[in-house]
Here is the input.
Amino acid sequence: MWRIISDELGNTECSGHVNPSEVHAERRSHGVDSIHPEDRAPTHPMLEVTSLGKRFPRLDVPVLRDINLSVPSGGFVTVIGPSGCGKTTLLRIVGGLEGATKGKITVDGEPSLGPARNKTMVFQHFNLFPWRTALSNIVYGLELQGVSEDERTDRARHYLDLMGLNRFADHYPSELSGGMQQRVGIARALVVEPQLLLMDEPFGALDALTRERLQTELQRICAHAEVAVLFVTHSIDEAIYLSDDVLVMGTRPGRIVKSISIELPRPRWTYDVRADPRFAEIRTQLWAELEVELREGTEDLPGAIE
Here is the structure.
């Protein structure tokens, strides 16, 4: 169903045990830095990133190198990797908040290097206007677009209802819990009806119970809105639960080193997906890939453990 990215090793079939040393050796022997898009099925790509690179001009330090990825219409792709590998930088470039040194980005087949109405971003911090109510925060983007008051109120109340926040429409951010504030932030992003939703660790600041609840709500809402999602997280479990495909990023410079397809039935909120043996197998494989990157990231640091 999905158009995804595959490296030279191909799409990996999960097994119960993965040895990080074997992963490390296999990568080196196949030249893992060469990543190319691969069609699994004739699906319309909503987002395509091609040969994307970024350097800091003053230091001439490569931050991202040869990033290629694709998110199909209605698809959910997660990027995971060690801190500092460039995940947020990649997301901000796709969102038009930062520039790239090289490469191409298209959304729905059109070049998209700056901010645009067809893509929105949800950040880890809620970034709500404290002087606006929940309803007023949600309609902000529609106000900028010149949408009539009646229409923007109707659309905002629709998403308040989807988020279970109807009773809190007139509450200010200081009167809402962290989970409620993030739901307002997600509603504000979705109310403009984007084709692409970019999410930078949106649940990272929440407690575990609220986080799991919002993961389920996000799946329901994305299924309803049929929006393509590019998601960034540090959580392996979150990546598996939410995603169709997970892209593992390496460091120094940031690059995609592996794509893993999550072949678990949807909708995943209808059964205990974490109890599925395949969930544990995928988790083991992802951790092995990440462990290689964590090890490589400390090899040349002073005092690094052998």
